[in-house]
Q: What sequence folds into this?
């Protein structure tokens, strides 16, 4: 009986490991979401392999344990690839940015979210699925005199970018063919330096191959942009998903690793980071934190601070 249980468990774990390991063979869109959970699934496989070895000590059980450990280890290695590394800023941050997916049906917490945004002391705020904030827009615009989005009623209120400083340039566009106006490109001047700010909201990776097309369009939009760049938003995938990895390599974007887990917000640090804030040199993140309260959203918000190379010559925006 123990032998039968051993081989049944081994077969299930082998199949699960094989599915996760397909990332090393092909970037199949249907499995992109699974790839985002490689570290979490690897830990589960390690635990399952230990159970298998407890049932029966056999070489194949040790093989499964080794492969599981390698999956976990490689997951952490992949996260480090896009890390800013150790940076010591000699000057205060030039600006602070908040990015938060409000959740489109989160009406009951709209007042609390509005108060949180105003109290954040962020210079720029990137809000996604902002429809529940429709009745608080004037309060937000009083604190943030410059905005992009939500100009034509609640039905058009999806991405909302708020700024305490005037926009040097602003553009709203679409990426992919599933949803409209989920790409906002703007620039703001901080201490004499123009910083490019990009907000993006990608589709879920298991919605056919729409996310692949969105990443392609996003890449085309970013290529002509020169100078300091911030990309923030909801990618619905972690940085270790193969499609996101390829995009980050091409665009030379970095973040702070490990990124704070943002989804699902209810599990805190045990979740995965699918909401991101990236920077391209000469701009660098010096701080990236998860907001303490998700205020009814299934996403946790992020707040980040930035410095520029040679930023000792630039005054703080605060």
A:
């Amino acid at each position: 009986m123990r032998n039968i249980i051993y081989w049944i468990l081994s077969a299930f774990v082998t199949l699960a490991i094989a599915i996760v390991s397909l990332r090393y063979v092909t970037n199949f869109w249907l499995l992109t979401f699974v790839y985002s959970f490689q570290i979490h699934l690897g830990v589960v496989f390690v635990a399952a392999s230990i159970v298998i070895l407890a049932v029966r000590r056999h070489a194949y059980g040790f093989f499964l344990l080794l492969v599981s450990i390698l999956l976990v280890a490689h997951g952490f290695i992949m996260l480090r690839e896009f890390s800013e590394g150790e940076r010591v800023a000699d000057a205060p941050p030039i600006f602070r940015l908040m990015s938060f997916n409000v959740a489109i049906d989160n009406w009951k917490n709209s007042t609390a979210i509005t108060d949180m945004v105003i109290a954040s002391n962020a210079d720029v705020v990137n809000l996604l699925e902002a429809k529940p904030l429709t009745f608080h827009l004037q309060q937000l615009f009083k604190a943030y005199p410059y905005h992009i989005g939500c100009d034509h009623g609640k039905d058009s209120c999806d991405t909302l970018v708020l700024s305490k400083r005037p926009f040097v340039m602003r553009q709203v566009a679409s990426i992919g063919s599933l949803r409209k106006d989920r790409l906002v490109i703007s620039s703001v001047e901080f201490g004499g330096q123009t910083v490019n700010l990009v907000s993006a909201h990608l589709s879920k990776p298991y919605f056919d191959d729409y996310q692949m097309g969105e990443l392609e369009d996003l890449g085309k939009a970013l290529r002509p942009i020169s100078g300091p760049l911030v990309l923030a938003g909801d990618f619905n995938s972690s940085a270790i998903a193969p499609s996101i990895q390829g995009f980050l390599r091409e665009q030379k974007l970095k973040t702070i690793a490990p990124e704070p887990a943002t989804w699902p917000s209810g599990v805190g640090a045990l979740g995965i980071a699918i909401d991101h804030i990236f920077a391209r040199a000469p701009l660098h993140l010096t701080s990236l934190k998860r907001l303490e309260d998700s205020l009814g959203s299934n996403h946790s918000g992020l707040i980040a601070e930035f410095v520029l190379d040679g930023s000792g010559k630039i005054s703080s925006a605060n």
